[in-house]
Amino acid sequence: MNLFDKSLEIRFYHCNMNIKKYLVIIIVFSAIAGRTQSAYQFTIVKDNQHGKVEDQCQTGTCWSFATVSFLESEVMRIKKGEMVDLSEMANARYVYPQKAASYVRYQGKQQFGPGALGHDVINTMRDFGVVPESAYSGFLNGQTAYNHNLLDTYLEKMIQTVVDKKLNEDGQDWMMGIQSVLDAYIGPLPQKFNYNGKEYTPGSFRDYLGLKASEYVMLTSFTHHPYYSTFAVEVPDNWSKGQYWNLPLDEFQQVADYALNNGFTIAWDADVSEPGFSYKNNIAILPSEPLKKEEAFSKKYPEQSVTAESRQEGYDRYETTDDHLMHITGIAKDQDGGLYYITKNSWGEKNSAKGYQYVSSSYFRGKTICMIMHKDALPKEIAKKLNL
Fold first, then answer.
1. d(Cα 315, Cα 235) in Å, to the nearest integer?
2. Based on the structure, what is the number of domains in the chain?
3. In 3D, which of 272, 327, 324 has the Cα closest to residue 62?
4. Is residue 5 part of a domain?
5. Which residues constitute the domain of residue 34?
6. Does 4 map to a domain?
7. What gap in Å lies between CA 292 and CA 294, rounded to an integer?
8. pLDDT digits (tens, 9 = 90+) for 291-337
9. Which residue in 46, 73, 17, 80 sits closest to 257, CA to CA?
């Protein structure tokens, strides 16, 4: 997901916070003219295991950061609390050449860029494996922060030249240039590495962690395809035409609630360009009346009642767009009992909640594109409808 062209607020790329269970948290945000206390107060209902907040910096790789964070939680669940720090940039390194090859085969008639979706990480895990951060950070020459601006510019110009000049007619030699640029900017992928005193390959490390790509399900909810069937979600970053199960909206949210309440987490793809999505205020709401910036969140806003029809309308009008992936780790309630999803972002640790946001039920229903979870997180009656 590439987020560079969104609002000024989104460009902060920040966040993080170690959330304590059952702790009431009063959100406070800093305004230019002073400090205003938020009208929203939250109590943690369920907070599932997860790793630290990361910073994707100046890259369009939220799809990897969010899904890697999700997989780290999966390892903690599967291996009873064992923590692992997985490489986000290994997925980017695997996927860039695949996107380039696809772009050429489609004769330049699809998107090429840093963006992708969460299923691309699951597919990479299946086909290649996973790598710890200690074996592949994506930093070269003493770097400590990611900046892929030049890398993305070079790759886009190279791949467009291949299409324009039909360099593919001479075979696959053009791919050597793509690989060389990737090696120069984020490094060659390791074939073997040591981890806690043992040698692994990416595939054997995946197996050691207990991760199985076949056990993860991709879900969405739209009315323009039949329910309980799969389709390739029609968003530009779905370059690999990933298939997602289509659920009725109420069941889609039921699945999310059931998963979180039973110890699972969710890789979440959503629209974050809405006025009610406020990273600096640690909240995302879908107000039914205009949100006044001068009031910020010093008052509580009534929210929209989202239906399958209104959700579909927002998608078809491009009001709901495929902007950003994050990691939903738990559930909270506000002081009036309203439901919110605890969401871990990948923009660092510089907002007052240290990288987390509270996403309202209405926002989730209206602005989610799709999500990924373990198949055991599905309620049995819904899993049966999907033949899973």
1. 10
2. 1
3. 324
4. no
5. 10-385
6. no
7. 5
8. 887 677 889 999 999 999 999 999 999 999 999 999 999 999 999 99
9. 46
